[in-house]
Amino acid sequence: MSRKRSASVLVAAGIMFSRLSGLVRETIRAMFLANGAANDALVAATRIPNVLQMLLGEGTLSASFIPVYSAALEEDEEEAGRIAGAIAAILAVVTGVLVLIGVLGARPIASVIAAGLRDKPNFELVVTLVRITFPAAGILVMSAWCLGVLNSHRKFFLSYVAPVLWNIAQIAAIVIGAVVFGMADTDADLNNPAINTEELGDLARVAAIGFFVGAIAQFVVQLPSVFTVARGLKFRLDTTRAGVRSVISRFGGAVLGRGVVQISAMVDVFLAGLLVEGALSSLNSSQILYILPISVFAVSVAASELPDISKMTIRDEVRIRSEGGYQRILFFVSFTALAYVLLGDKIVGTLFERGNFGTDDTLLVWMVLGAYALGLPAAAVSRLTQNAVWSRGDTKGPARIAAVRLAIAALFAIATMRYFDGFSPENVRQLPTIPEDQSSNPALRFGAVGLTLGSAIASWAEAILLGRLADRHIPNIAPLRPLVRLLPALFAAGGVAIVTRGLVVDMPNIVAMLLSVGPSGLTYLAVCRLTGIADVNLFLKGPLRRLRMR
């Protein structure tokens, strides 16, 4: 196995463990909080400080810090360590100030970003939770700095598996809270209004504390390895070094680009808050599944490639390296998107439908997930394209494209929400007061689908624009070209999925999922092999070798 492939495998393995533990976390959370008011509050409270984490965290450091630090390591490890220490000190000061502002200004910040919840009973809970989660987001920024250092030294696994501790802390908090509040009892009536308004609010607070404790664990577990690999590491506010100034100069464009992404996330929170109860929760549940293939298959490739392509001076080498990454990403992600669209109800039902999470919740999350999945291949390849452009020193171009993406997503979401959920300036205040006998009808609360359809359309626009930008820096690069070769396999797999889902209608979710996703996936692999898709051979190499040995 080549060095670059082993690196991406390590990243993928770490991310897989992390995302699977996150899936377990969301499954347990959905079992008790479902798509309810307490979960809406918890989602809003984790999204609001997430602005800090994403502005200063992994994405920004990937664009600004890793290329400079990786290059410095080639010349002088001691100097590279001083650059890393200076950046850590600067991040700590900036993050500390922003965390203080976030904690003290939790109410006005929540009033603006979660304006749709301001007049709802769960708004006070949002404010309380934000004061817990904001410090956690600051710690996660420093955890991202650890990731940047370790990745530059090609130590990939630990940083990407460290979030497992973050998820375990939240899982433990929810389970302990459920036991303490009597909600883990099999005889407990989870639909009792008293439980929903009191105990579920307390459970959300306990989950937020788990969020904070887990962030500390994720950061601390990486520190010993950072101190081992980074020689000359000194935490000083030193902006005189050329490397530090280079990071700072790139930082502005990277922050702008990530800022646009976070504005998009905040727009989602704002608009979803205007919809009926459960819209924020359904967005969160669907995003867990949506982000899983992007993280495992796209981020793993992009993260493992960035340190190396940042050192390459020949553009053809960058193009060849990137094209191999696009093929691997689209091979996995395209089928995942197909499964989410056609068989998402079986997948969501298997993972989440238990406890307080019912069939209506499954239908809603599937619709939201299916809309997201329409843009999944585009969103996945954009991660690697963005890294390729960053490696050429251009952080402003992707930022401008991210702004275009935001505008497209927001405009489309606002235009479609009214048709999916009765959203309009005139009647938005009446949405939370849908008659009780109709409140369980998911057809009345599909506005979140409009949000994710806008995101899917914007993802394709971003992928196309990023491809054109990358072509200026790296001629003849074509991020979406491998998708054309996958179309026969996708059509065949889609046909099998449609037929099999009709045969498993009355079966339990897990059985229906296995009997529909399984044959569809095997068909996809078979047609890929027949049409000469190289990545399927790597995927099947182990099983085929074992068959030959028999």
Question: Helices and strands in order, then pairings?
Answer:
Elements: H1 3-33, H2 37-56, H3 58-75, H4 77-104, H5 106-113, H6 123-152, H7 157-161, H8 163-180, H9 193-220, H10 223-229, H11 242-274, H12 279-309, H13 315-352, H14 359-373, H15 376-391, H16 396-421, H17 447-473, H18 481-503, H19 509-530, H20 534-549
Key phrases:
single chain, 550 residues, mainly alpha, 80% helix, globular, disordered C terminus
Q: What does it look like?
A:
The protein has a domain of 235 residues. Helices cover 80% and strands 0% of the residues. The radius of gyration is 23 Å and the shape is globular. The C terminus is likely disordered.
SSE string: HHHHHHHHHHHHHHHHHHHH
Strand tally = 0
Q: Helix content range of the residues, please?
A: over 70%
- How much is the radius of gyration in Å? 23 Å
> Average pLDDT, to the nearest integer?
78
Q: How many H/I helical runs?
A: 20
In short:
With 550 residues, the protein is mainly alpha-helical. Helix content is 80%, strand content 0%. It has a domain at 17-251.
